[in-house]
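Task: encode each sequence below as structure tokens.

Item 1
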Amino acid sequence: MKKTAKILSLVLAAAMAAAMTGCSTGAKETAAADTVKAASEAAGAAGKEEKKADGKTAYKVGICQLVQHEALDAATQGFKDALIDAFGEDGVEFDEQNAQGDSNTCSTIINSFVSEDTDLILANATASLQAAQAGTNEIPVLGTAVTEYGVALGISDFNGTVGGNTSGTSDLAPLDEQAAMIKELFPDRKNVGLLYCSAEANSQYQVDTVKEALEKLGYTCKYYAFSDSNDLSTIVTKAAYESDVIYIPTDNTVASNTEIVNNICQPAGIPVVTGEEGICAGCGVATLSISYYDLGVATGKMAAKILTGEADISEMPIEYAPQFTKKYNKTICDALGITVPDDYVAIEESL
């Protein structure tokens, strides 16, 4: 990188001098702009040649995944497969790191990507995206498995495009339809417990939205927020005791601890409706879900366009999943004596 920077400085200086010699004022400005552009392109080419000379692949991509669980793993795999499809096995090098659920570790990982001057960063989940935005305003950053970018990044007037060096894909399923699913499956129940991690901004957004929709449908809703996995069992026990149904959004902490939820709710006979398939497979009865693998593929296709210069990330709007599917967990439904409508697909059959 130092060599490339030196090349850029020398070429720019020579280009500006050549452009300003023997020209009128207007011609000088035009010539200067043209030669600066040419110089930048030359420096970029030199940088790529420098990578090849060092034996490096054409593109180096850093992947920061918040935590390991089925949904995020699938998104990462889809992203990698899309880039390999675009550039080949030898055309892209992945530096894939997992923060083990810790936001501070996300920051450490992002800082390492910045110091290595990676060509692009994938931020998988909200905490990873927040760390990436704080860590760099130059390296392109694509988020995935992030529910609402305005909430995640503190953009009050979010219009669908983040701008700057950030874009990505959202895993947001229609929250009003998730509320309608509860009404469809459990029309006679009254109290819905909203279980979520208070440290995840997008989880808060989802339960707030679902609460509003459920109250319009005649349900009484109560929040059950836990701070991390250490107090999850206590809060789930309270929620199961006080609720007729529990709703869980696309919450990464729950996704990594579904066994805790299932071991409490299933014996208590309390059904759990979830925001995504991975959580439903572990502790839920039904979900309106997306394919996280397909979401990752969509993110990878965006990355390919950015890396080749086909698209400007500052102008790329957030992309959403193209379709949603009603799914159910046959094992838990059978255990609780719940019959779902015919248009629900069993999770076991879809994997």
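Item 2
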Amino acid sequence: MAQTPEATVVFGVFNETSEHESRVALTPDIATRLRKAGVSCLIEHGAGEAASYTDDDYAKAGVTVTDKQTILDEADALGFVDRPSEQMITQISKGTWVIGMLGSFTDEAYVSALQQAGLTAIAIERLPRQLSSAQSMDEMTSQNSVMGYKAVLVAANEYGSFLPMMTTAAGTIRPAKALILGAGIAGLQAIGTAKRLGAVVTAYDVRPASKSEVESLGAKFLDLGLDFSKGQGEGGYARALTAEEQAQQQAAVDKKASEFDIIITTAKVPGRKPPVLLTKEGVAGLHRGAVVVDCAASDLGGNVEGSTIGEQVTDGGVKIIGAPYLASEVSTTASNLLSRNVGDILTHFIKDGKLTVDMNEEIDQAMVVAGDSSQERKGE
């Protein structure tokens, strides 16, 4: 029988549960995998409860359930659902590794704070996801898939009729017409889920490859009469459109949107302001009772002009739901996937039993945003 290697790296996870966050960056199953890779795990009391993982579950998996200060004192690397607060950065020991969605594309001051604190920072949003070796580390793909699924359930719950066609003694009820704007990972999952619930689904994305992807799921592709032939950017993400292209797209989408009962927008550009896909004029053209779920809503704006995080109902009776936290509402599965992503990132950087950055590696070049590239474990 193979022996479990002696632990050489200590990995810690905090309780990030909040009003909007139910996920945890380590699950018992992944802790077991990490232990086999020579990683011992620490987790803060109650960190997994909102995701249906008890402290007992972690203890049975060999995780040390402890307090925040012990984790700060003993961990070589820390994994986050989001990112450490600026206050926490000042508490983390110099030389510790930090793994999370760090917002490095837009928050240079934050990255600078990580650097000044002497931390090695691994920004998941910079993962070169086109590499086959990076697929299991891709948190955006895993969490966006959960988000797309949940977005349809939220819309179905708020919509005042059935999604599928229903024939009853009182007559036939037509199926809901759903429009998915953005056919990336979240959008494709939303298409599949809406189709399974019986809606008539149409989708749109600026990337040329998206048409065949949409149609392969049995949905129609919305023809706007426009050609953004260079719609795909680096790493498989949609590129940001030019101002002229955005104006053309918005006008066309606004005109077509009035035909639909449910609209779900998923077009995120990682770390940057999302493109507006539906303007106030487009929303005003929707019929009373229509539901819009904006998955890209954030402090930077959303895909729907004027959308905010939370719910609002327009004077015309259209419900707009700004919902960036949907993955957290499927917390058990989302945590399982996220934990696998974070765990695989961690083990990627373990070489010969030490946390090491190799700047000759494409993944390392892309993701390390702070820290001495020659740095290994703290205290080494």
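Check on item 2: The longest strand covers residues 39-44. The chain has two domains: 9-126+331-370, 146-324.
End of task.
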